[in-house]
Write a structure and sequence with these properties.
This protein has a 6-stranded antiparallel beta barrel. The two termini are 17 Å apart. The mean pLDDT is 88. By secondary structure, the chain is mainly beta. The chain has 1 helix and 7 strands; from the N terminus they run E-H-E-E-E-E-E-E.
């Protein structure tokens, strides 16, 4: 099966949660939750993606997907990933971060 450029994942990160800090269990240690709005493509557990903003980029693996009940924005999905080692990204609402395949 061949793919086209439009098959590639592009998602805007709207919020970041340090789930390891929030829940404190070993299962969530060194994990972050990225609330994303998918522009194109699809999410899948095990997919390798790039978290980036201008001038910075790091590869992450999606280890979980959570459908959020967010009445303000029902199109937002939370993906669980390992915490980036090189990038610094603060918890809370963010702008300028993108997930790409």
């Amino acid at each position: 099966m061949t793919g086209t450029i439009s098959d590639k994942l592009v998602a805007l990160v709207v919020e970041v949660t340090d789930v390891g800090e929030l829940f404190g269990t070993s299962v969530f240690k060194d994990r972050i939750g990225l609330d994303v709005r998918v522009v194109q493509g699809s999410l899948a557990i095990g997919k390798k993606v790039f978290l980036s903003r201008p001038g910075e980029q790091e590869e992450l693996e999606i280890v979980g997907i959570e459908m959020l009940r967010n009445p303000r924005d029902p199109n937002v999905v939370r993906i669980l990933c390992s915490k980036p080692k090189r990038l610094t990204i603060a918890s809370g609402t963010v702008e300028g971060w993108v997930i790409t395949e």
